[in-house]
Fold these 2 entries.
Entry 1:
Amino acid sequence: MRILAVFAHPDDEAFGPSGTLSGYALTGHTVRLVTMTRGEAGTLGPAQHLSREELGRLRSGELRCSAAALHLSELLIHDYPDGKLSELPAEEGVNILRREIEAWHPDILITFHCGGISGHPDHQAISRWCIQAVREEGVPPRLFAFGISEEQARRAHNRGLIPIPDDEITHVIDVTPYLKYKLDAIGCHQSQSAAWEKMKHLEGSIESYFRNEHFSQVWPESFSRMCHGRLED
Ligand SMILES: [Zn+2]
């Protein structure tokens, strides 16, 4: 299978569905990650003493480290403006996705759930672009929206995270065998270690928090059946 994952910033993939991505990559599937920005508008850690150019370079390097840790097949880092994706004309955003789909022919496309997990407008914009691009394609890939469950949002109390409503979750993937790769990928994003420190205050262990990754199949529209284990089911 050919799996295309599209996210906004360096670290979205690591804190996002990295267990699933590494699992597929390590079992013979081709996994391509496209990240729309270089993360130059970040505010954590070194952002306080680096220029935007320097921060973008640092975070691009961290993303390459993460993609290698996850054993991904391909990585493309675009240089669209961090924090301003939602201000781009929708047509331009949709075209980026359309070109990817037509050139690369993914079987599966993975992006953010429409709430964007953290509610970041960049995340929400990419989710909208993906849905529109897939709806307009002649031979569309299956589109999966990644997000956290209501239980995970509760365990990360007071961080304002937007979960996938439980009744929209169609696939739950147990990524226990790939947790090591996920944690290695998160570790690559040293400039975002403050975010990681906050995550350590979750209820329960990090391992139990990250064990399951949650998806909603948004295209073709699914009939609210819950699948465990594999996106190809
Ligand atoms: Zn992000």
Entry 2:
Amino acid sequence: MSHMPSAHHDEQAHDECVAALSSLQEFLHGELDENAADTIRTHLQACATCLDSFDVENAISALLRRCHPPAEAPSTLRMRITSIRVTHFDG
Ligand SMILES: [Zn+2]
């Protein structure tokens, strides 16, 4: 599971993107330690490439569905990702 599918458009995958996305499943499953999870959160909040190129939105939606009812609105994806941090501290 060391290679993500090449769903990106123009090749702009930096090492940070590869690292973040390769750990995305673990991140979503809460299997990362706090430092690693925070690294990914920070990256996804900052990196449009990851958000745009991979199935992050779907994954985030699945994650948040545990805590919140679905609220489909692609423009709020960044806000939803930010809410992960809130959820994290909330419990
Ligand atoms: Zn990225």
